[in-house]
Amino acid sequence: MVSLAYSPDGSTLAVGTNEGPVRLWNVATGKPLADLTGHTSQVNSVMFSPDGKTLATGSNDTTVRLWDVTTRKPRTILREHTDIVHAVSFSPNGRTLATAGGTVVRLSDIDSGAALRTLPESEGTVGSVLFSPDGHTLATENGDGSVSLWDVDTWKLRTALNGSGNSMAYSPDGALLVIGDSYHYVQIWDVAAGAVRATLLGHTNEVASVAFSPDGRTVASGGLDHSVRLWDVPDRTVLTGDAGAVRAVAFRPDSRLLAAGELMGAVKLWDVASGKPHSTINHPGAVLSAAFTPDGGTLATGRWDSEVQLWDMASGKVSSTISVPADKVNAVAFSPDGTTLATGAGDGVAALWNVKTGKAQAVMGEHTAFVGSLAFSPDGSLLATGSGDHTARVWDVATGETRTTLTGHTDRVTSVAFSPDGRTIATGSYDRTVRLWDAATGKTRRTLIGHTSDVNAVAFSPDGRTIASGSTDGTVRQWDVESAKTRTTLLGHSDSVDSVAFSPDGRTIASGSADKTARLWKVALPAPAAAIKKICQSVNRNLTPEERMAYLPGQSVGPVCP
């Protein structure tokens, strides 16, 4: 058995063999119905027409045969190919057949068998061809490490995906294309964006076949490692930029907009619900950092040229500028009351600024290398900073003095975050680890190990139970805080993940990457009752506004903890 296909009604199974005959089986009884003889060599591909009346078969004998399923007789023999035919595919309307033979893809009329078109020759052997469910796109696997998407109306190349494989399948809505690869992995592509949505790792040998479930939520893959695997399709939106790496992502407090700061000088605002562009702030210079005020009315952006700009979100214009005496502003953060802005700069200095006057309130310069990240404690009394000197520091905001120094990382500390209860600080480092620290004592509580390259960003979920981390290894990991184990690894970025953020309602993780995309990942929240019980038991307090939004949307504002 080399190839197989079910009839549209599921009653008949067609099987292509090594010797040439195609065998039809009755699915209900498991008994053979007929052998279709004519091919003189291995049959590599079989496919029923959408109406189930015609069966197309492609063979090593270089021919394609169209069979009448009712009479089980050949209707047409297509002899245009001069090389092994690896794949056949019917258009959804059943009028056109795409066939791949050697480096050539041909289109033929089903009724007459006449040749309609030949696509430009591929650099490699075309392994598979597939029409999209709406019939407007033809995907061809080109044997050279690429998959081409062709516009069926114009037969012009729409885009080329950087992936190769033995089999392909569209999701039922045509929005996704899954490819099974000879390098042991499965990739799910966003067709419109031309970007990888997920890379599924687990097979230990070549992936020979892939398929979507009818509801589009599951991918099945079969490999030469003798395993069949079922994968959940990641619920994620790809936000494609056009101005360079995305270095900063920040949610507006209402969770409706995401700001994505790009290295080439733009801030893109995206509608979180739809994944569509909302507006663009034309930023004068590379955007290294971004943060919203607690009321969402102002966006602060840190620039490469030592300036912080405060943007009025209503008008989209600069309301004020703060000049930081350093070469670049790596990090910005607003205090919980929105009156103070903290900046971390390339000269190792963290500073506190009065938002209203733009004047410096405190300058904290004890780090011996750049300050790459900073975060306020939930009550605004403390500021955590991460530095290239391999340490993080916790500062008293009122005095500007160091409370404690967090030592233990063996390379630069790239990111810091306070837990929602203020008791724990998370840090990410180039030493590939995430550490959890007791904010009061400065002692390490846990070390999270799993990333295979630099950790560039960390963020706590609003309920404090999960940490998201982004790494140069191209992944986003979700960690369970209590067990210190990886909960989920989110795959899809094709380059370093430089920033991560949880939406205030806890339902979405945003990630920004050097691959010029930001991505939105849906988060599976714990059951409301379990989450509320955990919060009440752990911190002995009522729900915060963010937790209430996540677990009790639309309910009264009364206390929920006993």
Set out the fold topology.
Elements: E1 3-6, E2 12-16, E3 22-26, E4 32-36, E5 43-48, E6 54-59, E7 64-68, E8 73-78, E9 85-90, E10 96-101, E11 104-109, E12 115-118, E13 128-131, E14 137-141, E15 147-151, E16 157-161, E17 167-170, E18 176-180, E19 186-190, E20 195-200, E21 207-212, E22 218-223, E23 228-232, E24 236-240, E25 246-251, E26 257-262, E27 266-271, E28 277-282, E29 287-292, E30 298-303, E31 307-312, E32 317-323, E33 329-334, E34 340-345, E35 350-354, E36 360-364, E37 371-376, E38 382-387, E39 392-396, E40 402-406, E41 413-418, E42 424-429, E43 433-438, E44 444-449, E45 455-460, E46 466-471, E47 476-480, E48 485-490, E49 497-502, E50 508-513, E51 517-522, H1 528-539, H2 545-551
Antiparallel strand pairs: 1-2, 2-3, 3-4, 5-6, 6-7, 7-8, 9-10, 10-11, 11-12, 13-14, 14-15, 15-16, 17-18, 18-19, 19-20, 21-22, 22-23, 24-51, 25-26, 26-27, 27-28, 29-30, 30-31, 31-32, 33-34, 34-35, 35-36, 37-38, 38-39, 39-40, 41-42, 42-43, 43-44, 45-46, 46-47, 47-48, 49-50, 50-51
